[in-house]
């Protein structure tokens, strides 16, 4: 039995603090799933929307991309910030990237890099990523017997991977890390600067300047990287526009690491808090593929995306009107009792782990999902082979952000296997 719906549920759904405490998130959303799974929310500072909280409804909306469009609303932006964007750029869209596009543009732009992120290319990166994972565990070992795993380890490794894919030199990593944390963690005072949209816009402009320089370089010095594909990309015989190209760099650069690092830190915390699961995985390393799916279900680093209805329709028995927007609440879908057996139990052998929708679903399904899974699998294989007796050395802390969030601090102690 779950709690009754609190009176201020609409504000709870959008409040970044809800996302900084997984228990309050899950309490609120379990109540929504039970009492009003497709819920009309009118939070104080945001345009209203439907919160879609059940797995089946989220999948149904995402699959019907003809009626549920990504343009013009992709994620929570306050009314004030939306007005600011409209005044600045004439659009409430932050950037014209894959996530903001619908067909036919979405199909054409996604096709530019889909082979790069497909199974074959990702497998070809395995050796390089394994070397990085070794280096990452070496860093842990160099730190002695303790570290802040979220800050010092998990943030660094996916960033380095995505920089390799993009073709960004190693010395520019700190800049990329700072910028993308500003873009994604804009409401958290520790990680994002704490000044919301202004911080995001500033970071966005810095990204543009950086990637314009990369584009010029790759036009004269083509290499085997995603930057070269984007610098020289054409659609229907025409070069893609600067705005679209930079938005593409941004989505690949930013979407590829805070998400993956959150799944890595959150996965490790879940193993520490469930020692019998840690022991099970150590005893049977072949479980790693399924365990990675469970880490991702458990952490669900992307908290929502939006769709907007093109025509009148119905979702979960509710009448949706043309123009209404819908918030896909992924962490809620991933704890849906109708799909997952004992959804609040973390189990590396969970047979239904692969049913998670942490990567979304349908035509916008995460472009980097295979890369993310490969990275996580390789890192944990390396980590568990070389590090023993991992335990908490302090309280973990979560980023307070309602779009992409995860652990910002994970102090741990460990012993190095000799
Ligand atoms: C655990 C890690 C990750 C999670 C949880 C995650 C989650 C998501 C989600 C929920 C979406 C939206 C899907 C939808 O609307 O149906 C998405 C889209 C996307 N992701 Fe990821 N992602 C992760 C890692 C990555 C990585 C490593 C990359 C590397 C490039 C990446 C690139 C993208 C891109 C480009 C899109 C837009 C796809 C489109 O709209 O067509 N993601 N991701």
From TrEMBL:
This is Cytochrome P450. It comes from Sphingobium limneticum. GO terms for biological process: cholesterol catabolic process. Keywords: Heme, Iron, Metal-binding, Monooxygenase, Oxidoreductase. PANTHER family: BIOTIN BIOSYNTHESIS CYTOCHROME P450, P450, PUTATIVE (EUROFUNG)-RELATED. CDD domains: CYP142-like. Belongs to the cytochrome P450 family. The keyword Disulfide bond does not apply. GO terms for molecular function: cholest-4-en-3-one 26-monooxygenase activity; heme binding; iron ion binding; steroid hydroxylase activity. It holds the Pfam family p450. The keyword Metal-binding applies. Cytochromes P450 are a group of heme-thiolate monooxygenases. They oxidize a variety of structurally unrelated compounds, including steroids, fatty acids, and xenobiotics. It comes from the Bacteria.
């Amino acid at each position: 039995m779950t709690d009754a719906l609190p009176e201020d549920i609409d504000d709870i759904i959008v409040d970044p603090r809800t996302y900084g405490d997984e228990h309050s998130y899950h309490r609120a959303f379990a109540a929504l799933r039970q009492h009003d799974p497709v819920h009309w929310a009118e939070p104080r500072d945001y345009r209203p929307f439907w919160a879609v909280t059940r797995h089946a409804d989220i999948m149904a909306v995402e699959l019907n991309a003809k009626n549920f469009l990504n343009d013009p609303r992709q994620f929570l932006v306050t009314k004030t910030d939306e007005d600011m964007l409209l005044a600045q750029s004439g659009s409430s869209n932050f950037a014209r990237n894959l996530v903001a596009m619908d067909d036919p543009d979405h199909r054409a732009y996604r096709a530019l890099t889909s082979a790069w992120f497909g199974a074959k290319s990702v497998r070809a990166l395995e050796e390089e990523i394994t070397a990085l994972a070794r280096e990452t565990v070496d860093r842990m070992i160099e730190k002695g017997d303790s570290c802040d795993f979220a800050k010092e380890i998990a943030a660094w490794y996916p960033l380095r991977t995505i920089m390799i894919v993009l073709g960004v030199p190693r010395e520019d990593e700190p800049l990329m890390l700072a910028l993308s944390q500003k873009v994604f963690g804009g409401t958290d005072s520790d990680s994002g600067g704490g000044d919301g949209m202004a911080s995001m816009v500033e970071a966005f402009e810095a990204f543009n300047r950086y990637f314009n320089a990369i584009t010029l370089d790759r036009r004269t010095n083509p290499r085997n990287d995603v930057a070269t594909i984007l610098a020289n990309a054409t659609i229907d015989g025409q070069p893609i526009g600067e705005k679209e190209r930079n938005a593409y760099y941004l989505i690949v650069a930013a979407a590829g690491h805070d998400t993956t690092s959150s799944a890595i830190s959150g996965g490790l915390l879940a193993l520490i808090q469930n020692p019998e699961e840690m022991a099970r995985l150590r005893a049977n390393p072949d479980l790693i593929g399924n365990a990675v799916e469970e880490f991702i279900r458990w952490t669900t680093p992307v908290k929502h995306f939006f769709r907007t209805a093109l025509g009148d329709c119905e979702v979960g028995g509710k009448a949706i009107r043309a123009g209404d927007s819908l918030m896909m609440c992924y962490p809620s879908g991933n704890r849906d009792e109708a799909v997952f057996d004992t959804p609040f139990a973390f189990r590396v052998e969970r047979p239904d782990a692969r049913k998670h929708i942490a990567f979304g679903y349908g035509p916008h399904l995460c472009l980097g999902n295979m890369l993310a899974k490969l990275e996580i699998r390789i890192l944990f294989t390396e980590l568990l082979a070389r590090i023993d007796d991992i335990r908490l050395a302090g309280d973990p802390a979560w980023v307070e952000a309602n779009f992409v969030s995860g652990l910002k601090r994970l102090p741990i102690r460990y012993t190095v296997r000799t």
